[in-house]
Amino acid sequence: MGGLHATRYGDGDVLASPRLDLPKGLHDTDTTRVTRIRISSGSAFEERVGYSRAVRVGNQVWVAGTAPIMPGDADPPTGAYDQAKVCLGIIERALAEAGASLDDVVRTRIYVSDAALIDEVGRAHGEAFGKARPATTGIVVTLLDPRWLLEIEVEAIVD
Fold this sequence. Notes:
26% strand, 23% helix, 6-stranded mixed β-sheet, two-stranded antiparallel sheet, 8 strands, single chain, 3 helices, alpha+beta, CATH 3.30.1330.40
């Protein structure tokens, strides 16, 4: 017998931990050889930290948290709306390179340095994703660069 099994303790009321038939595993298919398409924005940070701007596997695309990183490490715009537009431009280019678009996005996460910024960031988000209307979460965080007011992360499914 393979797969997951629940076993009852002697009293019949409490479930024990599921037992997994490890040779069969959780899936009937081998997922160790999936093709990954990695997209880079060319940032030195990607190489230093060991990540990709975006990764596509099958019809799914994940875009990493995207900050308002400017060419030549120039200062980003000072306003949250303008920083969000920079982030969304980077995201849109990464999605296009992965064969997706903003309309394919099904999930976003908005990381802001101050909750008061969500209206400005939300305005830019709404302009970009008004058609897709993805599931979205806003999170208040401390970001890696004090010039950044936000980061945006997205997930897309390509039809």
